[in-house]
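About this split. The held-out portion is used to measure sequence recovery: a designer receives only the structure tokens and must propose an amino acid at every position. Recovery is the fraction of positions where the proposal matches the reference. Here is one held-out target exactly as it appears in the evaluation file.
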């Protein structure tokens, strides 16, 4: 997804890129008398703080501009975006960790050869050959996931059922497991299948649109950190995993599976497919070329005014990378600008940095701003930060992630993704009640940066605005799901930042609460998402 078309030159991108150094204006920031006396004050007492909507708009426009070419990890556009973010953090007074604001993320990139990569199914004496990307895609990556497989097929049911009751798995030793799936399910079930001897996994989704999203999202590249030893966050599959497109699904099962049956639950999906598996053998051939690239995280630190108040830290994170340049849409547009995913989230992160700098006298914990790269490549930037954190992980009290917050109007409710793992969900709900909005906590999604922190034992959440106001959208990307991971994820002429500003002010309340005198979040149950 990061190839640059002919004629696209770095010099052109450099000339078109303009640094914006406009500071965010805050209004009415006052410290109540209770704070001066040492009493505990809720973060919601600072209701007069507001984010500058114009500055949010400027930053989002810079980061989602065509001149940055979609900001894929390792690309020239990613470097330009990183420099803009670093400049904004420096202007906001955030110090650089050792080595500077820009921190390298060394990465191994595997370019899949579509000619040499194919899936072969044998059904009742007939042989079917399918092409990569057009008919199927390799989902999870890494060297182990690119070695191919060969063997008989075994249907194992629904991935969500497997995640809840892995001990009930049928025998799969030496076989290729076929599962009815949502490709966004927690990947733990794949490890369970591998432990029981499965040689590979084929995921069959009942949603054709979901397959299209996966096809565009994965593209021709797979990534892992270029580090010795295992990856810190085990999102890399121990066996090859294939996501089947509609053509493959029809050959696997007796006739067309009712694609688009989104109302079917996990049990219903399994019942639709169970018992009609036709293909008896499967073989996956994979060809690829490996190369080394370097991406960049951007990190800034803001310590409390009192030097003694630095024992703990709070991390605010938003990923700034995108999918780069890839499959064109019907308009011929091949730049995946990533306006909602996640230029708006990074612009809001920078707005929070400005606001917290102005409210530094209220801080009791160090605030770390992390603009991460490689989120679209299996959370590589978050993994790299966890390997070399700017503040000890055992002293990191909480992580708040901003992604998918491009709503047009102030939300009526929020989803606290990952809020069920720790008391963070409860803390956010207390703040939400004071703001007159509703909150629901949900298990962590494996495709968002905070998931990496949770897996590493650090309390973490993502704040996702739910449907509200005139937006009428869903709980992810503010009703812009039709633009998710497409070239059409760019700012439309009617987009208003009023909703984004409201999300930012709510996030600011949360950040001030967590970075203030609040108790450290506690784990609820096991220390994993």
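Reference sequence for scoring:
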């Amino acid at each position: 997804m990061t190839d640059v078309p002919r004629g696209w030159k770095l010099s052109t991108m450099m000339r078109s890129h303009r640094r914006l150094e406009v500071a965010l204006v805050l209004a009415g920031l006052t410290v109540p008398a209770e704070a001066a006396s040492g009493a505990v004050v809720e973060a919601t007492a600072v209701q007069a703080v507001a984010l500058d909507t114009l500055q949010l708009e400027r930053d989002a426009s810079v980061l989602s501009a065509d001149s940055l070419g979609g900001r894929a990890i390792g690309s020239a556009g990613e470097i330009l975006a990183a420099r803009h973010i670093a400049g904004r953090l420096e202007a906001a007074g955030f110090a650089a960790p050792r080595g500077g604001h820009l921190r390298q993320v060394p990465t191994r990139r595997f370019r899949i050869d579509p000619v040499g990569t194919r899936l072969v199914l044998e059904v009742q004496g007939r042989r079917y050959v399918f092409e990569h990307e057009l008919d199927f895609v390799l989902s999870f990556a890494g060297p182990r996931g690119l070695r191919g497989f060969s063997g008989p097929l075994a249907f194992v049911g629904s991935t969500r059922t497997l995640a809840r009751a892995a001990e009930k798995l049928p025998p799969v030793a030496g076989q290729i497991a076929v599962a009815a799936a949502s490709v966004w399910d927690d990947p733990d079930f794949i490890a369970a299948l591998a432990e029981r001897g499965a040689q590979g996994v084929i995921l069959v989704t009942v949603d054709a649109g979901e397959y299209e999203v996966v096809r565009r999202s994965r593209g021709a590249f797979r990534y892992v950190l270029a580090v010795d030893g295992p990856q810190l966050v085990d999102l890399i599959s121990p066996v090859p995993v294939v996501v089947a497109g509609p053509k493959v699904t029809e050959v696997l099962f007796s006739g067309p599976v009712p694609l688009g049956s989104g109302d079917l639950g996990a049990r219903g999906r399994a019942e639709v497919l169970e018992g009609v598996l036709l293909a008896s053998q499967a073989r996956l051939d994979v060809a690829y070329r490996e190369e080394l690239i370097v991406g960049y995280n951007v990190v800034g630190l803001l310590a409390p005014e009192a030097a003694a108040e630095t024992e703990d830290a709070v991390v605010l994170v938003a990923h700034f990378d995108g999918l780069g340049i890839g499959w064109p849409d019907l308009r011929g547009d091949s730049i995946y600008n990533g306006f909602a995913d996640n230029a708006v989230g990074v612009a809001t992160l920078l707005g929070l940095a400005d606001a917290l700098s102005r409210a530094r006298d209220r801080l009791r914990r160090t605030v770390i701003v992390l603009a991460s790269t490689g989120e679209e490549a299996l959370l590589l930037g978050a993994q790299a930060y966890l390997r070399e954190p700017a503040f000890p992980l055992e002293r990191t009290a909480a992580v708040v992630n901003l992604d998918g917050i491009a709503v047009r109007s102030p939300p009526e409710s929020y989803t606290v993704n990952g809020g069920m793992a720790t008391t963070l969900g409860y803390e956010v709900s207390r703040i939400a009640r004071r703001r007159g909005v509703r909150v629901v906590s949900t298990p962590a999604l494996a495709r968002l940066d905070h998931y990496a922190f949770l897996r590493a034992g650090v309390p973490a959440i993502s704040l996702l605005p739910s449907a509200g106001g005139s937006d009428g959208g869903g709980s992810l990307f503010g009703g812009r799901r039709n633009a998710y991971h497409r070239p059409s994820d760019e700012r439309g002429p009617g987009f208003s930042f009023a909703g984004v500003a409201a999300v930012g002010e709510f996030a600011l309340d949360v950040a001030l609460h967590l970075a203030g005198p609040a108790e450290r979040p506690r784990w609820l149950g096991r220390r994993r998402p």
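Annotator remark: The chain has 14 helices and 19 strands.
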